[in-house]
Amino acid sequence: MSDSLTPETATLQALQRLVEVVAKLRDPDGGCPWDLEQTPESLIPYIIEEAYEAVDAIRCGDSDAIAEELGDLLLQVVLQAQIAREYGHFTLAEVADGIAEKLIRRHPHVFADVEANTSGEVRQNWEKIKAEEKGETQPTLTSKLTRYARTLPPLTAGMKISKKAAAVGFEWENVEGVWDKFHEELDEFHQALRHESKERQQEELGDLLFVIINLARWYDLDPEAALHGTNHRFLERFAKVEAACDRPLSEYSLEELEAFWQKAKKLLKQ
Question: How far is the C-alpha of 22 from the C-alpha of 10, rounded, in Å?
């Protein structure tokens, strides 16, 4: 690639190269068998996985890792568009034009003569325009919350749903009411585990988790970040346990493994 290229031209050339590489992978004549087997549905787990890996790289602040993971995520977009083009549904150009047009429509304070001097005003205009686009002149709160439940990871959706409901008054009077609800749901979960079907147990577990999300909201905590931290702390401690063992973990007693675990916790706190 020539050094004389403008950043914009270099970007377009790089994107075109990626599009051509993906098209070759999907070419029935000499393409990749794995890529040729994929469908939009079969690729869903990879979209989710790559999105989370990109988020992890951003959190770690590693520029090289961020660039790599964003590339993996971009691949999923290009691959979905390639398959859609083969089916005659849409093209990558239509995807790009569509989002560009949407951004222009939803930022009239930048591309038209509407005034919006704060991020709150921007958000209000965005939601109004979004509702108009969907034909919802007076969108119900339920329709908004349903979109959260359908499109977001469950923890994120639970927090957004509880915040929106609380904002219109569907809320406990104080945090003690949330704690009472927590103990009530915990008892119902215990009851379901002892006497009810797997389906009811699943429902009661969901109710309990939703109350915990509400407790996090009341204390201004982020349940997703909290669970993310716990997962990492567990893995750090588990790695110490594995390093301390000189034979397979399954050959140790629970008491021995617990001793290793407590030692790992102390080492990591130092």
Answer: 19
Return d(Cα 93, Cα 230) in angstroms, integer. Answer: 42
CB atoms within 10 A of CB 18: 17
Q: What is the pLDDT of residues 153-182, one digit of tens each?
A: 899 999 999 999 999 999 999 999 999 999
Distances (CA, A) of 85 to 37, 88, 183: 16, 5, 53
The owner of tokens 């002149």 is: 137
At 267, list the tokens: 């080492």
Q: In whole angstroms, give the CA distance from residue 161 to residue 24.
A: 43
pTM of the model: 0.68
Rounded to the nearest integer, the mean pLDDT of the chain is: 93
Check residue 169 and give its pLDDT: 94
Answer whether residue 2 shows pLDDT above 60. no
- At 238, list the tokens: 């588990």
Q: How far is residue 93's CA from residue 74's CA, in Å, rounded to a whole number?
A: 14
Say what the pLDDT of residue 138 is.
67
Task: Determine the Cα–Cα distance for residues 259 and 72; give it in Å rounded to an integer.
Answer: 41
For residues 45 and 41, what is the distance between their CA atoms, to the nearest angstrom?
A: 8
C-alpha distances (whole Å) from 28 to each of 25, 36, 75, 94 are 8, 7, 19, 24
Rounded CA-CA distance 50/75 in Å is 10
Q: How far apart are CA 19 and CA 125, in angstroms?
A: 35
Q: What is the pLDDT of residues 17-27, one digit of tens each?
A: 999 999 999 99
Mean predicted confidence (pLDDT) in 77-86: 98
Compute the distance between CA of residue 76 and CA of residue 67 in angstroms, rounded to an integer.
15
Q: Are 79 and 38 in contact (CB under 8 A)?
A: yes
